């Protein structure tokens, strides 16, 4: 918490957050680099880690992650363009989407960008493109749905019997049909699954990865050689939003995989991951100023400038995506039980609907106008994924590097002032 207090105090002293720019997102690039290092340290050299661009689609963040050694997993043409703008070469990018157009597929195959096939209709399109580009270096494989069940959050569970993602392996004669498909197409050299996400146990994730590892072995045995060389085991490592503790860690995940799928650790396969939230979340915070406060029905309400337009998941699914918040006074000093009365508090955003709340009925030190609220663990899927950036004139994003009193805060994305917006009207 000490570093976060130094960050907010530096932002206040530098007038980065003020009466105009009343909400900011900050990415700790030093923390980001350490997280990537932790990921690589937890796994052997046959693992290669990519970052799910959708988790934080800011070019400066993506560029830093590239420098730290990560590839890019993209799920749309826009994300592909962002990855290219961040300097990623084609060989370090993998394209995942259940709705790739023919042009999307052609772009990948023509430019040696790897991809995962979602369904048989997509396979038919790729069959045609492979005749057009027989020498492509794209690593192509199927995304497999092992249909092993969901986790605690149904909307982020991707391995249920009826999931929209991937080829349903357990339906009918699908497994043998898939083996036949691979036998007939030597250019299919990968298998992919994304079993877990937030709310999924590590054992569930390992179970799904075990399924595709066994399938790869079976396909290779029937082909008579190692046709499948890559296993893409997806991302989805859960993040602890309840405290500063990083749990599960990458080392925890590696240990579960090693116990359940030891073949991954033998160099037989290149193993690719697609971590997103686990890389970005704990390295980002959102700081917003309290504009007004009032009491209503015995509840203290603090109205801020950061709500559903930034905390979209939290506003619409508060039980699944709770956010931890800390209050600071106007000088950036943390508010505690020793300094302020603890009262039941709603922290609200600026949007005009009742569910626009960061937190509800939490026991917090009393917030006053011109205080600040820090929302923790928001580096993934929050300040880089708004409904529409043009509707957010006062939200800027900054990076922070350095230690102690030598912090350097730099603008990643400029926020328009009200005057800027008015001039465009």
From TrEMBL:
<keyword id="KW-0456">Lyase</keyword>
<feature type="domain" description="Orn/DAP/Arg decarboxylase 2 N-terminal">
    <location>
        <begin position="34"/>
        <end position="281"/>
    </location>
</feature>
<dbReference type="InterPro" id="IPR000183">
    <property type="entry name" value="Orn/DAP/Arg_de-COase"/>
</dbReference>
<dbReference type="InterPro" id="IPR022644">
    <property type="entry name" value="De-COase2_N"/>
</dbReference>
<dbReference type="InterPro" id="IPR009006">
    <property type="entry name" value="Ala_racemase/Decarboxylase_C"/>
</dbReference>
<feature type="domain" description="Orn/DAP/Arg decarboxylase 2 C-terminal">
    <location>
        <begin position="282"/>
        <end position="379"/>
    </location>
</feature>
<dbReference type="InterPro" id="IPR002433">
    <property type="entry name" value="Orn_de-COase"/>
</dbReference>
<keyword id="KW-0663">Pyridoxal phosphate</keyword>
<dbReference type="InterPro" id="IPR022653">
    <property type="entry name" value="De-COase2_pyr-phos_BS"/>
</dbReference>
<dbReference type="InterPro" id="IPR022643">
    <property type="entry name" value="De-COase2_C"/>
</dbReference>
<comment type="similarity">
    <text>Belongs to the Orn/Lys/Arg decarboxylase class-II family.</text>
</comment>
<dbReference type="Pfam" id="PF02784">
    <property type="entry name" value="Orn_Arg_deC_N"/>
</dbReference>
<dbReference type="InterPro" id="IPR029066">
    <property type="entry name" value="PLP-binding_barrel"/>
</dbReference>
<dbReference type="Pfam" id="PF00278">
    <property type="entry name" value="Orn_DAP_Arg_deC"/>
</dbReference>
<dbReference type="InterPro" id="IPR022657">
    <property type="entry name" value="De-COase2_CS"/>
</dbReference>
<protein>
    <submittedName>
        <fullName>Diaminopimelate decarboxylase</fullName>
    </submittedName>
</protein>
